[in-house]
Design a protein that fits this description.
The protein has 7 helices and 6 strands; from the N terminus they run H-E-E-H-H-H-E-E-H-E-E-H-H. By secondary structure, it is an alpha+beta fold. Strands 3-4-2-1-5-6 form a 6-stranded mixed sheet. It starts with a helix and ends with a helix. It binds adenosine-5'-diphosphate (ADP) and magnesium ion (MG). The site of adenosine-5'-diphosphate has 19 residues, from helix 1, helix 2 and helix 4.
Length: 182
């Protein structure tokens, strides 16, 4: 995958498949610490301890229970090859948090790519879900909630192309301001 936002898309899709009704995406760039954190948190069905052990290990999992799924192993690899770390916390019936941390300056860190495209595509595909997007750098923070958007647009569906276009513009502007160059 050529950029981190495509990994993000894959991890958000897992949350959708897990039946989440809320998905929270965090992108945090700590330039002073040279760390970029991406995380996806959901209230989906969660994973058992056994599944959790299997999903992080591409060799074990591809050979036995799983056929194709490489979303998590690839996301994990993207962090580990960029001087970072990876973790999953999950509880059956409660939800899952997947977190990848990257060394911003690492030569093998992929570019962030378009978080705006990833998030708006997910909203278009699954407009029944509520999304929270938290964007942070050392100096400021931007929080976006689909609940707030719905309140403002009233009867207009959130997946309306005009609304999606507007949201994409807004998220692009924020990510450019907070993470420009990352
Ligand atoms: N957010 C999540 N909630 C519950 N289960 C999950 C979640 N993310 C991943 N899983 C479990 O881990 C498996 C592996 O995920 P992944 O590596 O993305 O491959 P795939 O989605 O193709 O199966 C999924 O099939 C699912 O069983
Ligand atoms: Mg997947």
């Amino acid at each position: 995958m050529k950029d981190l936002s495509l990994h993000l898309m894959d991890i958000m899709q897992n949350s959708v498949t897990a039946g989440a009704s809320h998905i929270e995406v965090l992108v945090r760039a700590e330039k002073k610490k040279d760390l970029l954190t991406l995380s996806v948190k959901d209230d989906g069905k969660g994973m058992s301890g056994e599944t959790l052990r299997q999903v992080s290990d591409p060799f074990y999992t591809t050979r036995t229970t799983r056929k194709a799924g490489l979303g998590i192993p690839l996301f994990k690899a993207s962090a580990e090859m960029a001087g970072g770390s990876f973790s999953i916390e999950s509880e059956i019936g409660k939800g899952t948090v997947v977190t990848a941390v990257y060394q911003i300056s690492h030569i093998d860190r992929k570019p962030l790519g378009s978080v705006a495209d990833t998030v708006t595509m997910c909203i278009m595909g699954h407009p029944e879900i509520e999304y929270h997007l938290i964007l942070e750098n050392d100096d400021s923070e931007f929080v976006f909630r689909t609940e707030d958007v719905r309140e403002q647009i009233g009867e207009v569906p959130i997946e309306d192309p005009v609304i999606i276009g507007y949201l994409k513009e807004m998220i692009m502007e924020q990510t450019e301001g907070l993470f420009g160059g990352i």
